[in-house]
Predict the 3D structure of the following.
Amino acid sequence: MSKTLFFYIVLLFYGVLSSQTISISYSDNPLELSPLLGADLDITVQYTSEVGSTGNHIYVGLEIRDSNDNFVSTIAQQTLQNQAPGTNLQITVPLFIASYHKLSQNLPQGHYYQAKSILYRSGTWTKNAEVGHWNTPSLTLQNTNSYDFSTNTLSNGADISWIT
């Protein structure tokens, strides 16, 4: 009985110490996407490395997913290599969202923007922990600016020969 109890205590202790976690949050949600300048999105990543880690690689990306939560495309991404190991560490990863991306309301029915992050094992590209659509809220891209762009076309272009 005591050997079995000791085994379970050691197993539990090892499981607690070896756990790796990762979570993400947004700087702004909804994010204001300017039709002229795009937007900067800061994603805060909080993570805990595996025991004995000398550094971790962390991937952060913004994706479009469909109504079945399937991947459609990547909007922006960044991979950080050899990040400091430790417990409950926090980093902020900036992602630029270009102005040519559709606002959330203009995506196809059921599609949405979603952040994703992966914590890779020290010195390898083996996934330790991952966060995405199953445990993080989606991101809304919106534009509440009152820009009024002309839809008139230039038929013959503009004569700028006088400038030179």
